[in-house]
Task: inverse folding
């Protein structure tokens, strides 16, 4: 890998919520970046200087990097010095991990590898995936030295390909700040791989970079998101208990968090996104009898969309042809990310009742999500005030900042207002 960034080519496999911002950041630092995505429409859009996902500042960055000739998109990889794999790792119906996208990406880059290349996997993966990638590369490219998994410093052949697991640690909606400032992990197949990946990331990352072995890095990434999932499950269960006692859950949590050693998460309609609903299953795969707490937390969070739909349905009792305004479809505030969205699941459950008219309000999307296609009683509403005025029942499922501007007078005449997020709550008062 050249010390001159302009002479270093980076190939980013996967141009989604992680890969595309990563490509933009690296191109901005002077690297020549080749983005790869199998979706032809995505490739065409990026090469035209446009984006297919919403992330603050992303469209301007991609436009400028493409115009400057530092970033181009392709359907197949090409030779590079560094290869970054940032493809999806979904979950199978039986809750087992699907690493086929990672495996396919590894197979795609194999013919283009050259001695001394650095291969980085950023996708969230079950433990052992980096070793699996090494096995694939060794099988396809027996002419290239591939590092063996080891924690010890050993002699390695000249021209050895470096292989490292460096999990992404970014939050949609704040990717550019977090990519640069968050601490990172570099988990190498061998220590030399970890050191090379650390030197690479040091050119763009201000946070600390910790080196370790690939298995520890893989498990650390899963542990991070599982920690959040378990704590969100506690918050959701606490909210259900509070409702049973006639207590406002969001006020309760805000007050409990005044304790200096308590930090309860926010409850909601469930947990969405690519990571948190998936990673705990990756972590406990093959060990479900051991991981009782983690499994129970997953079950609780998965139950929340149905509970939200039940609460909304109960609020509609006694109404003739009720109209429901669902505020928010994205899984996370202030993004257009619908992946594993609990709000989408709640909308689907409500749509099963043909008596309901559902006005879905999602400020960050322009067309009906595929998951709601064909549901004739679900409409995508463009105006927040208009949807609220028309609705009998209003339910907040995603805490978008726009909902903070809702005039309280609009809600006063509603038959019921169900805020699963707490965004409409006023903070507790203190003298």
Result:
């Amino acid at each position: 890998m050249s010390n001159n960034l302009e002479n270093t080519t980076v190939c980013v496999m996967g141009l989604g919520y992680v890969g595309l911002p990563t490509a933009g950041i690296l191109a901005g630092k002077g690297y020549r970046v080749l983005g790869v995505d199998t979706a032809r429409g995505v490739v065409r859009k990026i090469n035209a200087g446009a984006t297919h996902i919403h992330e603050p500042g992303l469209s301007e960055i991609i436009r400028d990097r493409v115009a400057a000739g530092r970033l181009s998109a392709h359907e197949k990889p090409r030779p590079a010095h560094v290869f970054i794999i940032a493809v999806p790792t979904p979950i199978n119906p039986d809750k087992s991990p699907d690493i086929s996208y990672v495996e396919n990406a590894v197979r795609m880059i194999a013919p283009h590898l050259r001695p001394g290349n650095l291969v980085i996997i950023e996708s969230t993966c079950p433990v052992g995936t980096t070793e699996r990638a090494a096995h694939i590369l060794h099988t396809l490219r027996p002419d290239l030295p591939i590092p063996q998994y080891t924690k010890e410093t050993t002699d390695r052949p000249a021209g050895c390909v470096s292989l490292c697991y460096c999990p992404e640690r970014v939050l949609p909606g704040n990717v550019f700040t977090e990519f640069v400032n968050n601490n990172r992990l570099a988990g190498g197949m061998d220590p030399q791989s970890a050191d090379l990946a650390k030197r690479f990331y040091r050119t763009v990352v201000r946070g600390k970079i910790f080196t370790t072995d690939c298995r520890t890095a893989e498990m650390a990434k899963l542990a991070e998101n599982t920690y959040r999932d378990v704590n969100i499950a506690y918050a959701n269960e606490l909210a259900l208990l509070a409702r049973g006692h006639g207590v406002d859950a969001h006020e309760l949590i805000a007050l409990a968090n005044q304790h200096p050693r308590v930090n309860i998460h926010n409850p909601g309609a469930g947990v969405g996104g690519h990571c948190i609903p998936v990673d705990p299953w990756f972590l406990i795969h093959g060990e479900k009898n051991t991981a009782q707490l983690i499994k129970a937390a997953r079950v609780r969070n998965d139950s929340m969309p149905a509970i939200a739909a039940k609460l909304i349905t109960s609020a509609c009792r006694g109404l003739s042809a009720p109209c429901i305004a669902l505020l928010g479809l994205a899984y996370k505030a202030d993004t257009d990310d619908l992946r594993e969205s609990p709000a989408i699941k709640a909308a689907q459950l409500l749509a099963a009742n043909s008596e309901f008219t559902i006005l879905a309000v999602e400020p960050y999307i322009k067309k009906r999500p595929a998951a709601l296609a064909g549901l004739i009683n679900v409409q995508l509403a463009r105006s927040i005030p208009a949807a609220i005025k028309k609705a009998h029942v209003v339910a907040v499922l995603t805490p978008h900042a726009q909902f903070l501007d809702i005039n309280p007078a609009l809600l006063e005449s509603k038959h019921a207002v169900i805020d699963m997020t707490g965004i409409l709550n006023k903070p507790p008062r203190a003298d």
Residues 214-244 form the longest helix (31 residues).
